[in-house]
Structure formats: structure tokens, C-alpha cells
Amino acid sequence: MRRALRLITNKKKWSEHLVGKAMGEISERDYEVMRGWVEGESF
User: Fold this and answer.
1) Closest by alpha carbon to 41, among 15, 21, 32?
2) Whole-prediction pTM
3) Contact at 8 Å (CB) between 43 and 3?
4) Which of 3, 20, 27, 42 has its CA 20 to 30 A from that of 10?
């Protein structure tokens, strides 16, 4: 099972966390999760 991003707190309305936010700070953990997805690692 893949790890969920912590920056997305409401999984049913995830798009609300991204609308109007071209850039924003993310946690080190979320960065590592996304990096793993890009590099093809399973989480």
C-alpha cells in the first residue's frame, strides 16, 4: 500500500488543498514519499 501525503488532510476533497497554491512548503516526509513515487519505489 502506498503512503498517503500528510499535506492532504481531507482525502475526499483533496483538490481543495491544491487549488490556488502554485507553490507551498511540504514536509520532509511528503517530499520523500513523492520522490519515491517518481523513482518507482514501492511504499
Assistant:
1) 32
2) 0.57
3) yes
4) 42
Full residue range of the structural domain in which residue 13 is found: 1-43
Q: Which three cell numbers stand for residue 35?
A: 520522490
Tell me the pLDDT tens digit for each residue of 12-43: 887 776 677 667 788 999 899 889 889 986 55
Which three cell numbers mark 3? 503512503
Total count of domains within the chain: 1
Amino acid residing at 29: R
CA distance 36 to 32: 6
3-state secondary structure the chain: CCCCCCCCCCHHHHHHHCCCCCCCCCCHHHHHHHHHHHHCCCC
